[in-house]
Amino acid sequence: MSNPGLPDSTGLPDLNELATQLSPNALVTDTDVIAAHSSDRALFSPVESALALVRATCVEDVQATVRFAAKHAIPIIPSGARTGLSGGINALDGCILLNVAKMNRILEVNTLDGTVTVEPGVINLDLKNHLADFNLSYPPDPGSVAISTIGGNAATNAGGMCCVKYGVTRDFVRSLKVVTADGEVTTVGRNTAKGVAGFDLAQLFIGSEGTLGVIVEVTLRTVPKLADPLTSVALFSDPVHAARTVTDYLGKGATPSLLEYMDGGTIEAVNAYQNFGLPSGAGAMLIVQSDGSGSMTRAQEDLELFQQVAQDNGATDVMYSDDPRDSESLVAARRAVAPANEKLAHSRGGGELVDDVCVPRGRLAEFFERQAQIAQKFPDILVIACGHAGDGNMHPNVIFDAGDPVSIQHAKEAFGMIMQAGLDLGGTITGEHGVGVLKAEWLARELSPSAQKMHVAIKQALDPQGIFSPGKMLSHLK
Amino acid sequence: MSNPGLPDSTGLPDLNELATQLSPNALVTDTDVIAAHSSDRALFSPVESALALVRATCVEDVQATVRFAAKHAIPIIPSGARTGLSGGINALDGCILLNVAKMNRILEVNTLDGTVTVEPGVINLDLKNHLADFNLSYPPDPGSVAISTIGGNAATNAGGMCCVKYGVTRDFVRSLKVVTADGEVTTVGRNTAKGVAGFDLAQLFIGSEGTLGVIVEVTLRTVPKLADPLTSVALFSDPVHAARTVTDYLGKGATPSLLEYMDGGTIEAVNAYQNFGLPSGAGAMLIVQSDGSGSMTRAQEDLELFQQVAQDNGATDVMYSDDPRDSESLVAARRAVAPANEKLAHSRGGGELVDDVCVPRGRLAEFFERQAQIAQKFPDILVIACGHAGDGNMHPNVIFDAGDPVSIQHAKEAFGMIMQAGLDLGGTITGEHGVGVLKAEWLARELSPSAQKMHVAIKQALDPQGIFSPGKMLSHLK
Question: I want to staple A194 with a disulfide (CB 3.0 to 4.6 A). Which of A111, A452, B218, B431 is the partner?
Fold first, then answer.
């Protein structure tokens, strides 16, 4: 999609004009600081040269920045903690980076309604810890839980390990305060448990990756404090048996609060990184937890069922623990996949691409077969996977030699073939990491021409100048 | 909002042209049949004279009708079982009524993924019954559960009694097949548990009340078959003590699967209608159920907590039953409020307006105080309420003499004052019944100018000719 409203810059706008409208020190023109704020954690996503960085400390800073950008037809890229994996907040030439990480106050915990209102820069884990004092939980737990912000989580509809039972960010947002393309601030969504007054614009903004406006406040519903879960682990000779276990188990009406997958290569990578007590030599592993919705009996039944189903599906070993330390260690092992793979990549030339496809859970076995074929086709690179098995959401990691053009080429091909496998199996190119720059071309393959047209029309309707995050998620849609 | 694309009809379009493109007998021009399809169940909502009725039996019928309407700039009003309460599907002069109630096949139950795909005309209760054979449940249960369609439920984001634990229709829709304003058919949403590829257009269509397109297929997620609940009832001398019980109970981390409210006047109306064993003379009643997420122990704990909290809040009587027949009878009593109020209205001049505001649950007590003030202001009419207390979603019924202009005027005033109370308390004018014609003017009061602008822009973007349901939900937005 083109940005018809953005003329070529023929002269630089006067940043002093902007500075006078902002909080002291909010405007940053130091090129080193700008560079440090110019990218997220994605590979193969271009980083260009921003005109300026605004570190907003209040809604008025955001409004002033948007109005300035609109007046001068300058692209504006909202960002938070920059922990994304798709290049969605990477700088464009001449853009303003609008960072809201400093807007990080928890504004209100409403215990009567079980809601919490925060500024966008609040770190997810900080919110969780804060809510614990009120006996409340906010379930969404992306891998970046300790470092990513609630605003970023909402802008990308972040997921995590809890989703198999509790859902994603979208399921917890009651309302958003947003700054729109004309610099107005408005509330979308509602502060009640139910409501059908008009379009659900909050749902439209969630997952829109900064292309429709800037999120400056989020009201979330919470749930009563989650009970400590019980944990079980099953090992398999190969991924397909693990996949069948997932389908059978959930098909029997189980409601696990976590159902994670690691393949043999991932287990090896984690073992090489740190000793979490994981066995070696398995072809695949499932970690399951149940909190029994507060009933320990129900949690035990959930895990007994899991063990039975895993054994019926040829599990080579099934372990069970009601020691919370063991549970924590197993989940820590799953969370360690990211640094473990980084270390592995480092030893093999430094290249790593993290994919994120989601297929209907009934087609996981086929997906694993496709993954094996892709790995076989490129023996010079590694394709290993972990993921949120209960949701069919897989993260194949492509590990390659970043110094070898052939290896890079193979990695890119494998990355694409993984997404194609996802689409072929009725799934999506991204379950939770988002589109950004990395998958913008692929979004155009996933969406029908008619759905693309709707995206373009809505973008044009809400941001006619095209100032918000051009060249990103929507850039290949027609 | 005006409909710039719709010129005044200077001549009638040739319906034969449309007939040749439709399934046999799909086009209906018989004025009696058209009249029978021209309205839902709302009062005070104008019903005009439709040009024709199309009873679609397939997606192609819908596409042909939309294309014909677009070509001739004729308004088109999609409908299902016409059980709405806001006039959203009432005929406009010269419109085509596009009814999809005959598209009522259950297309696929996918037990591997726990999803079900249906045509829009499938009745909610029929779907529930069908899923029971697969040990699956589809929770949303609007009052119209036995007569309303899944397509209509999606178009209006229907709620019900389950929502306090399980959420509304929106929370169960994976994807929709829709026919857009250009007659194209496309899928919005996704068939996976998670997905973030682009805007969530399915969420935009849900609750859009036929203003953006026609829903021709719905894929829903299901949950494992819900366990039979236990039931408890508490009586109070007045509504405010009931409200405090709701807030305290939920604040203690309870997760009831139903938490319903009836005030004294409503209990009397139900008792006059049929004997469900409800006591008389109470000022307010709460019915609570817990399914314990499958754990009977947990369900019992939930209800014991309820009884304790109710007593602490001055309940005059608390009853408990683990006999499923008692539970069914109590819920049947709650479901009988609609016909009971109809009967009551009949005895008082026939007028009845059902309101549907939702406030933050922490403000229910204040809402009841406002309701009492409104009732006091108009002693010639009745204002009695029931509702989904756990969600703060109240249905005050205004009962009046439809033959007395003063009574009608008072009823309308009271109806508006109830909505104003909802807005004043941080709530919404409609929790689940929708906007339609009845509350279109009020939608403009609820939404900020900026949010209105977004609605108008999106409508214009997706339906530039304004053919879908003009004069309804969006008609007062600027």
Answer: B431
